[in-house]
Amino acid sequence: DAHTLDVVRQGAQYNAVVAEIPTTVSTAYAHGVIENSLFDAATRAGLSDGTTMALIQLFAWDIDFAHDIQNGDRFTVIYQKVQRQGQAITDGPILAAEFDTTGSSHQVLRYTDAAGTAGYYTPDGHSIRKTLMRAPISYSRISSGFSLHRMHPLLGFSRAHQGVDYAAPSGTPVKAAGDGRVTFVGVKGGYGKCLIIDHGGGYSTLYAHLSHFKVGMHAGARVTQEQVIGFVGMTGLATGPHLHFEVRINGVARNPRTVPLPNATPVLVADRAAFDSVAKTLLAELGTGGGARVASAAGAGSAQANAH
Fold this sequence. Notes:
Strand 5 and strand 6 form a beta hairpin. The chain is mainly beta. The C terminus is likely disordered. The protein is globular and about 80 Å long. The strands form 4 sheets. Strands 8, 11, 12, 13, 14, 15, 16, 17, 18 and 19 form a 10-stranded antiparallel beta sheet that branches. The chain has a 5-stranded antiparallel beta sheet with strand order 3-4-5-6-7, sandwiched between helices. A two-stranded antiparallel sheet has the order 1-2. It contains 3 helices and 19 strands.
């Protein structure tokens, strides 16, 4: 889609030329206020589904989009749009974004280092990526939270529930919460079919009640964050299909939704001055709209757009 093929007949022969279609990249700006749902607000703000999903992924480390989002929450996005012959054909990466939820504000900035590696960071240079994900599954609801005293639905007596249960249809893919090495794959008492990953630094995660494991999962296997490792089921002591997920630090179970998680590598000292310059510019554009395309989702679906 970025090239044309021109074939010209000259006598008994044909000459073919492949020409590149001129491509331009511009900066776009969108702001939305959630009234019904995030996707509704994002659509009215002019964001594509792909850019909306990218926005969710950027903030998923700190915001539980299934439970924390409320009407009145706001987002601002600066991103690239790719055009050919005056027609927008796709969205490029998000350059900067801000998400304001009740009582908290989160900002992310894209920075490309001298080696050409791009990443997303907070304004103070910390990577937005955490070494572990809080929810390794796309789920519909939390069916049971972390508790030291919970009445077990099958056993009929109170005992600690050392993880979070994410209700989801059988067969829903379960992803590794972080990079690591599989230490257990098999049946483990009331956990049913269970998989445990050692992430180093004293951190480990446990995934229970699985219907089956992804092919290739075995003790000693290396996995990467967001790699599919198994599928939701209801094996073991389970009343319905769900994922039981635990985070352990030095063998002690901690609440996956609230436990502090270590960040990935921050901006290197050698890149700090360049990063600070980029961050200053992007933060200013977040606050002013950067003179770019503006689309507002506030009010009764009103929107205005200005070309940049």
